Amino acid sequence: MPAPENPKTAFVLGGGGRWGAVEVGMLRALAEADIRPDLIVGTSIGAINGAMFASDPTPAGIDTMNQLWDDVAKSDLLGANVWERVKTLTRTRVAIQDAAPLREMLERSLTVERIEDLATPFQCVAASIERAAEHWFDRGPLVDALLASSAVPSLFPPVEIDGEHFYDGGLVDSVPIDRALDLGATRVYVLQVGRIEQPLRPPTKFYEPALLAFEIARRHRFVRATDDVPDGVELHLLPSGNDVEFDDPRQAKWSDMSETATLLEDAYAASTAYLEQQRTS
Question: Which H, E and C letters describe 230-259, residue by residue?
């Protein structure tokens, strides 16, 4: 399909916890290919990565993100010991991880305080508990919105903003392609963490039905959005280089950041090759 004239380019960054390191490799590949977004939308870790890039959408900004992920991998940001988690659960009754260290890291790393002050237009999604609905943040305090979008249930407590409580945006829109399209994007680059690249299969072990049910729930909206892309829209699903299937036991190790460097490098290589193929085809 021929590319539309004067396309509005959007970067869509999906959720995926520690696998989100791949998105930094993808962003570097896009920046080196001189592909710049007019809009960034994100969910969960994709919201955090997207906001970081939106604050400085340059190769220097990518270097900062690389360093940040490296620092997190070497820190105990998500590695609180058992006693600390017990204390957090006792205090909150609903979560094992205190969100304060993540808030402090975001406040140190981001160069602006409000969404509307970012260098590139940005939105992120969270799940409203009271309304059982998606909520898009396009203005207001940036860190609050990012914490809401990445508040994984039971891991982090829900985030209260203006009397409303929010959980992770992946519950309602894990890879928000349709939001970018609703906002007028005609060229969409999808940055996702790898799971949606792998086909699903019927369960063969007793624990797999629950994993499949979760994966179907998080994936069905993405599948519908990609199936219903309007004529005239150019959609690019960047390869992650991350071979992770729905039953991969590494997914349970949410605080293990030891693969960060490999995830970054593999995603960069895979996406660079894809973009070069698109340029020459």
Answer: CCCCEEEECCCCCCCCCCCHHHHCCCCCCC
Q: Which candidate, 219, 234, 218, 147, places its Cα nearest to that of 185?
A: 234
Q: Which residues contact 224 (CB under 8 A, 6 or more apart)?
A: 178
**Contact by Cβ (8 Å): 27, 36:** no
Residue 242: pLDDT band (50, 70, 90) is confident
Distance from C-alpha of 79 to C-alpha of 82, rounded to nearest angstrom: 9
Q: What are the distances in angstroms from CA 70 to CA 45, 56, 99, 258?
A: 15, 18, 19, 10
Evaluate the CA torsion angle 237, 49, 25, 201 in order and state its sign. Answer: negative
Report the pLDDT averaged over residues 254-273: 89
Q: Which two tokens stand for residue 107?
A: 């406040």
Tell me, yes or no, if the pTM score tops 0.85. Answer: yes
Distance CA 42, CA 100 (A): 21
Q: Is the pLDDT of residue 76 over 50?
A: yes
Spatial separation of the C-alpha atoms in residues 53 and 48, rounded to whole Å: 9
Identify which of 185, 155, 173 has the alpha carbon closest to the alpha carbon of residue 223.
Answer: 173
Q: Is residue 137 within 8 Å of 162, Cβ to Cβ?
A: no
